[in-house]
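quick one, 298 residues, struct below
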Amino acid sequence: MGSGYWIAGWSLQASEIAGIALSTTSVAVVYAVMLERGYNRTDLGKVILAACFVTDLGTVLALGFLFARYDWWLLAFVLAMSLLLWQLPSVARRFFASVGTRLSEPDLKFILVILWAMGALASLAQSDAVLPAYLLGMALAPLCLSYPTVLHRMRVIAFSILTPFYFLKAGTLVDVRAVLAAWLLIVLLLGVKIATKFVGVWPLAHALRFGKREDLYTTWLMSTVLTFGTISALDGLTHGVINQEQYAVLVAVVILSAIVPTVIAERWFDPGLTPTEERFNGAARIQPTLLPQETPIV
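---
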């Protein structure tokens, strides 16, 4: 936030958006790397993924309350959200058990209706619709592990329909001329973003004795940004907190933050961990990394 305010000369609110957008860690990028390498079945991989979720939870909460309109709609949203987090897992489990497996997919529709309803209520409260989706996803995670088919279909909907349209919308709002004109600021913000991640992550990883390569591997992966970074920038543009040029700069930094740290981590600091193996016809075989029971990433 300080670099946007003191160096770029942005307003305080615009700097807050920049700080939120660049403080996140891309769960989608890290999750894909963990799956590809099979590290999601190692202790280090599980720690990294858990840290990503905690980081993004803070981002979601910050976004949810930064733009919120503190009135009766927000009170209704908080009360409804609290009630759902308390009762939805047990209600959904009973509903899933009662409807069973049907061609009309009532269990999937049940989840989608609740997500859309809470997203609409969050919008009425001037909060962010991603907040209820994130919180309800965490609440329903244990249940979804018991219903891998529902989990798989939700992932298909998210990645094949919702995500492409979202990034298409976010990309069409980027002014290429603004990106080219502000390339020095983009490089500066990228450097500040990575440097602050090193200050926050590397000492802790070192204190936990991950190992030299593991320390740097973890820090570089925690420096990635993508989904929530673009969501933060888009929210700032939608609410008039940042202008088109500032939005283009932030999205450019976010995209570079998804690519540069990932390439460096995998190219020079891959710790070479050994995934869990299983015996198959007398020979060791690495378990498939993409299984139906994996937790979805949105």
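The beta strands are 277-280, 283-286.
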